[in-house]
Amino acid sequence: MSIIFLVFLIPAIYVASRTLWPLALPLWSKVVVALLLLVISQYHLWSRLSSGSVFAPEFPRPVVILFNWAFGALVLLWLVQIVLDLGLLTTAAVRWQSVGLPDAARYGAIGLASVASAIAVANAVRVPPIRDVAVEIAGLPPQFEGYRILQLTDLHISKLFPGAWASAVVARANAAGSDVIVVTGDFIDGSVDMRRKDVEPLRALRAPDGIWAIPGNHEYFFDYAAWMRHLTALGFRMLPNAHMVIRRGSAELVVAGVTDLSAPSVGEAGPDLGLALRGAPTDAPIVLLDHQPRQALDAAARGVSLQLSGHTHGGMMMGLDRLVARANGGFVAGRYRVGDMTLYVSNGTGLWPGFALRLGVPSEMTRFTLRAKP
Asked: Rounded to two decimals, what is the model's pTM?
């Protein structure tokens, strides 16, 4: 982990040397700002010192927001400065002489990065709207025509997404008029004791066919067993390598869930779709809850009709989404056709408070309406 902290020094050093130092400012002010950049770059170290985990910054919410804005502005400024420097190198090569960057360009880059980061943080912390998605399913019984599933995912309830935010999410989710609500993991960042009050509003989630859920990788970072007990006590019916059957008269719809790919790293059972579907009706459409989308090909091969995933946060920013896709089997956001199966990867309802920025990748609560495939 210490290597990661050292890696985060790179943007601070680059910005200090290429953006800050050439400016016509007093030496003392450059030293002060350079030290501030180093402090900002170590946000995740301060988070670990505050709680024992980089995933749970235990500062007051305004401080967490400020840190995210400053860290985001630093990273964005680093990227902008790299682009400017590449432009200088190209110009110098064409003219065959050295080229300088005026202070106005550096101040412009600072302003651009600061404003973009502020917008990105504001987009990240909002209560997301409902996004409607229609999904055609082969063999869907007429009784389930128009059936509505609301997906919440990657809530990351924390100091950044506290109880007040969770209450607003619950109110909007309950007003969505869905038949069932599913949560595809990453409920929290923090232990049960740290998050007890903040997750309490989730107890008020309501849907006619219940509230069903699976763990995400972050549940395994903070005493998985304790969280499974607590979430069950809040009214969630957990589906770790299990399924349930929703019935409308003689018609059936299977909702199955699997554990997260990170489970074996902490001695817990890894995802097992075969176990999850054991005893399920063989002629009923299957909706699968899988936090990470990487195993979508396997799910399609097992006859799953619709897989709902999260984990990627949609890549958070345009451009970064391509890197996130590479780490997730090519899946990062939205709808995909995988064989005869529809995979939907949500952008997420919240996101990790260690890098809470969204540019061009809005958060969402996703309401799926099932339709019979012609």
From this structure: 0.93
